[in-house]
Design a protein that fits this description.
The complex is a heterodimer. Chain A is α/β, with parallel strands linked by helices. Chain A folds into two domains: about 150 residues, Aspartate/ornithine carbamoyltransferase (Rossmann fold); about 150 residues, Aspartate/ornithine carbamoyltransferase (Rossmann fold, 3-Layer(aba) Sandwich). Chain A has 15 helices and nine strands. In chain A, the strands form two sheets. In chain A, strands 7-6-5-8-9 form a five-stranded parallel sheet. In chain A, helix 1 crosses helix 13, helix 2 packs across helix 13 and helix 6 packs across helix 13. Chain A is globular, with a radius of gyration of 20 Å. In chain A, about 50% of the residues are buried. Chain B is α/β, with parallel strands linked by helices. Chain B folds into two domains: about 100 residues, Urease, subunit C, domain 1 (Roll); about 300 residues, Metal-dependent hydrolases (TIM Barrel, Alpha-Beta Barrel), CATH 3.20.20.140. Chain B has twelve helices and 20 strands. In chain B, the strands form five sheets. In chain B, strands 3-2-7-18-19-20 form a six-stranded mixed sheet. Chain B has a five-stranded parallel sheet with strand order 11-12-15-16-17. Chain B has a four-stranded mixed sheet with strand order 5-4-1-6, with no helix packed on it. Chain B is globular and about 65 Å long. Classes of the chains: A alpha/beta, B alpha/beta. At the A-B interface, helix 5 of A face helix 6 of B.
């Protein structure tokens, strides 16, 4: 039953460069479906998918839901803010109950690092990690990479800098794994108090000053600054963050080249990114959102056992990808 | 008259400079004679020890027996039986029970429960502070009178330097060590594993080595200031070893222990989010393991202790960050040490016996730790070459949380004698379940 990706998508660390390219290539034909008047193909008809969100999410949950519906899967959303512990039922019991309802896939978002793997090891359904704690957010990493590839083509040797709170960012980890596996040069830039102490062992360049990062990079992926980082004492204030690390028009104007601007959202305008940058000519932030649906369709399709070479056919409405699974 | 004759084993007791094949005669709970060929009386119980090592009984100065409070995960009785099965003739029980063992009545309760168990001896350790709250000193004198052999707020670091200072001073009257769990609380807050590349990749909050080392040097300096005896629990970092060496070179009254898991496993075990690799202090790096092994060999670290910490299956079967710290260790300690330090690390069996028996007896001023004539007959007989696969379901401990499950290890207790009575014998009915 496991296809080219194995049973689950838990992170980009465990994927090869070829597997990542496979997902990106599979996403290409799915992009077009969302442009149609009737945005639906029967590739996952009859599949049951549970979107299990233990943590608040708007964008990712909606993106997954669109991807599932456009592939004709039956979906159920379970949203419960807070941890499973506060809810009373343990994650393992939740998993067993889902399994007992004979579902095919689980998309899980959870505040604990490793929660997706924990679930995947305990149920036979395919598990897709939609963000686990500060560990990984593989579909976000993939959609960022797809967006970069749309502009740059081959990413080998391309210089991409991830800016902001690397320490607490699952998006940063997935991007670092994915981009390095595709041969890109990756850098990070942020206050040292928001970088892991072992960052130099990640095989990335480190910039202490955002001006140096902008001078070096061909693209910036600007992470959201979470306000609880200030109350926890990692940095003094949002105001100073913007003054020292904010991506501003003024800073970008001094860059030796046009710099592509990505942001996984939701944005804090005027903190990590200024509005004229977010809405400027080199911003691909909304392309990321569009690509998110295609990437998630590709991941769902491949995990369901769909053949990559049949993605084009599946798109045409034969539904063969799904049938290949049986 | 009860007579036990251990025939043909290799007697290993560095305290008596013993290290050769010979017999051991035990009469009425006391070592009568060690060495040479001994012909016991006709009614002697003769135990064939050929191919086995006969040593003074192992003593674990650091375990959690959970009673009172969490009898569902361990009791004094099950812990004492697990200890005996692991070759321990005595263990010291940490006071982080519920309620906390911070007064003479609570200490007396553990002493009585241990007497009923008829297994390994159990010596209570009293709390340093009332309720382990780190504020008010507990009554050391009365606790010692009831049977406590040391004080510790283990599980919680003594955050206040002033309280630690006072404890070290006050403990001098009773000549007991003050045991500290070295962890700077603000640096370690929320941490789930060692801070480093693995924690960064897994997205788990790390505990830097410095959180331990800051408190190690603080405690050593306070021991220098007070002349008190500080015993540093479960050392886990290379830096701590260097600091202990620094203190000992200056004649400061500091002793230290290390756990089998910190001598054998690294932070790499956490990959995959296995909660049986979660403990505090956390598993560190290969360089730390190497430094700790060296420190055991050269004596910088005085002894090996288990930090046996049983937890319920359900508590470990959850998200890594939410799972409790700790693993069981009583029934795997010997094998982990033989496999990792003797077989791979070149530690002699004589030094192993010192670190697991003679040294803890000496440092905690406990009976045992010797096969000398007239010593109490606490004796461990173990097979240094037995290879066995760790199966937690066969543990006598109620705890099953072991990172060694499924591993094949070398070295296993064959017979454990406490006060001249066999309390555990591998494979024999009556002593313990066959393993």
């Amino acid at each position: 039953m496991s296809g080219a990706l194995g049973k689950d998508l838990l992170g980009l660390e465990s994927l090869s460069g070829d597997q990542i390219r496979l997902i990106l290539d599979t996403a290409e034909p799915f992009k077009e479906i969302s442009e149609r008047a009737i945005k639906k193909v029967p590739a996952l008809r009859g599949s049951t998918i549970v979107n299990l969100f233990f943590e608040n999410s708007t964008r990712t949950r909606i993106s997954f839901e669109f991807a599932e519906k456009r592939l004709s899967a039956d979906t159920v959303n379970v949203s419960t803010a807070g941890s499973s512990v506060s809810k009373g039922e343990t994650l393992v019991d939740t998993a067993r109950n889902l399994e007992a309802m004979r579902i095919d896939m689980v998309v899980i978002r959870h505040s604990a690092s490793g929660a997706a793997q924990f679930l995947a090891e305990r149920i036979e359904s395919n598990v897709i990690n939609a963000g686990d704690g500060t560990h990984e957010h593989p579909t976000q990493g993939l959609l960022d990479i797809l967006t970069l590839r749309d502009r740059f083509g081959d990413l080998k040797g391309r210089r991409i800098c991830i800016c902001g709170d690397i320490l607490h960012s699952r998006v940063a980890r997935s991007n670092i794994w994915g981009l390095t596996k595709l041969g890109a040069e990756v850098a990070v830039c942020g206050p040292r108090s928001l970088l892991p102490n072992a960052i130099d062992e990640f095989g990335v360049k480190i910039f202490d000053r955002v001006e140096e990062a902008i001078e070096w990079a061909e693209a910036l992926n600007i992470l959201r600054l979470q306000f609880e980082r200030m109350t926890a004492g990692y940095i003094p204030s949002a105001r100073e963050y913007n003054r020292v690390f904010g991506i501003t028009r003024e800073r970008l104007d001094r860059a030796p080249r046009d710099v592509l601007i990505l942001h996984p959202g939701p944005m804090n305008r005027g903190v990590e990114i200024d509005s004229d940058v977010a809405d400027g000519p080199h911003s691909v932030i909304l392309d990321q959102v569009t690509n998110g649906v295609a990437i998630r369709m590709a991941v769902l399709y491949l995990l369901a056992g769909g053949k990559p070479e049949l993605a084009e056919a599946a798109k045409g409405g034969s539904g063969r990808g799904r049938e290949e699974r049986e | 008259m009860t007579v036990i004759l251990l025939k043909g084993g290799k007697l290993v007791d560095p305290s008596q400079r013993l290290n050769k094949v010979g017999d051991l005669l035990i009469v009425d709970g006391v070592v009568e004679k060690a060495g040479g060929s001994i012909a016991g009386p006709d009614d002697a119980e003769v135990i064939d020890c050929q191919g086995l090592i006969v040593s003074p009984g192992f003593i674990d100065v650091h375990c959690h027996l959970r009673e009172p409070g969490r009898e569902d995960v361990e009791t004094v009785a099950t812990g004492a039986r697990a200890a005996a099965a692991g070759g321990f003739t005595a263990v010291c029980a940490m006071p982080n029970t519920d309620p906390v063992t911070d007064n003479q009545a609570a200490v007396g309760f553990i002493v009585r429960q241990a007497q009923r168990a008829h297994a390994a001896r159990v010596y209570p350790i009293g709390a340093i502070s009332v309720g382990q709250h780190g504020k008010v000193l507990a009554e050391f004198g009365e606790m010692v009178g009831a049977g406590a052999v040391a004080v510790s707020d283990d599980g919680k670091p003594v955050a206040s330097a002033q309280l630690m200072r006072t404890a070290l001073e006050y403990a001098r009257t009773f000549q007991i060590p003050v045991i500290d769990h070295c962890e700077e609380p603000t640096l370690a807050a929320g941490g789930a594993m060692n801070e480093g590349i693995v924690s960064a990749q897994l997205g788990l909050k790390g505990i830097p080595a410095e959180a331990e080392e800051i408190m190690v040097i603080r405690d050593i300096l306070l021991a220098r200031l007070t002349g008190g005896h500080v015993h540093l629990a479960h050392m886990s970092t290379r830096g701590s070893v260097e600091l202990i060496r620094w203190g000992k070179e200056r004649g400061i009254n500091v002793t230290a222990e290390v756990c089998p898991h910190h001598l054998s496993l690294t932070e790499e075990s956490v990959r995959g989010y296995d909660t049986n690799a979660k403990m505090n202090p956390p598993l560190r790096t290969a360089a730390d393991v190497e430094a700790l092994q060296e420190a055991v060999k050269d004596g910088t670290i005085d002894l090996i202790a288990t930090d046996h910490a049983p937890h319920h299956y359900d508590e470990k079967e959850r998200e890594f960050a939410d799972a409790p710290n700790g693993i069981v260790g009583l029934e795997t300690a010997l094998a982990v040490v033989v496999t990792n330090l003797v077989e791979k690390g070149g530690l002699s069996f004589s030094d192993l016996v010192d670190r697991m028996s003679c040294s803890p007896a000496r440092i905690f001023n406990l009976a045992g730790g010797s096969l000398g004539q007239g010593s109490i007959a606490d004796v461990t007989v173990f097979d240094p070459a037995a290879k066995w696969k760790v199966d937690p379901s066969a543990f006598l401990s109620k705890g099953r949380n072991s990172p060694y499950a499924g591993m094949t290890l070398t070295g296993r207790a064959a017979c454990t004698i406490v006060d001249g009575t066999v309390v555990y014998r591998a494979g024999l009915p009556g002593a313990a379940r066959e393993r």
